[in-house]
Amino acid sequence: MTHPRAAGPMLPRDPLPPRAEAEHTMGMPAQATRWTAKMVRELPDDGHRYEVVDGELLVTPAPAELHQRAVALLLIELGPYLLARTTCEVLASPADIELDAEGMVQPDVFVQGMVDGRPSLAWNSGAPLHLVIEILSPSTARSDRTIKRRRFQRARIPEYWVVDLDARVIERWRPDDDRPEILAERITWLPEGTVEPLTIDLPPLFARIHGERP
User: Which CATH fold would you assign to the domain 65-209?
Assistant: First the structure.
């Protein structure tokens, strides 16, 4: 995780895998029966991103440059649209979003609502999630497409986007979907309580992410 953690006792776990350019996940070590959000917060600040979903520990090394460019460009796409509307704001991880005692995630990009008409001042203070976005890498396919996706659907988060940089598509999931909507040309998003939708043209977005001329 990229932000400081409170000092606490080290928990027995397998050695972390070597640092790599691409993201990957590591399943829950055998000696830890069920991980909790509290246990994850006690892990050391070593540059990895730690998440837990339904008691399973997910470990992701620092992201690659392409991943971070995608995050930045999605913030640019979403930011002006949401700034003109006072009901939501877009943020990016690191963030500790606690879904339950055994569920804490750090979405790459997410849109959350207000608390009593104002932006929240602390994580997990009641701001509802309206949109969650994960930037896919081959080694995070299991967690992004399956583990996290199922948990987000159970939480009834209105939309979950999986951004596939290699295929240059966005997979859109809604709570009751059995299969994603695969979008290659454009994606249109209409948050609850708004009238005018946001439309993102995907080919120029992916071209900018890959350093090409749109």
Answer: tt1808, chain A (3.90.1570)
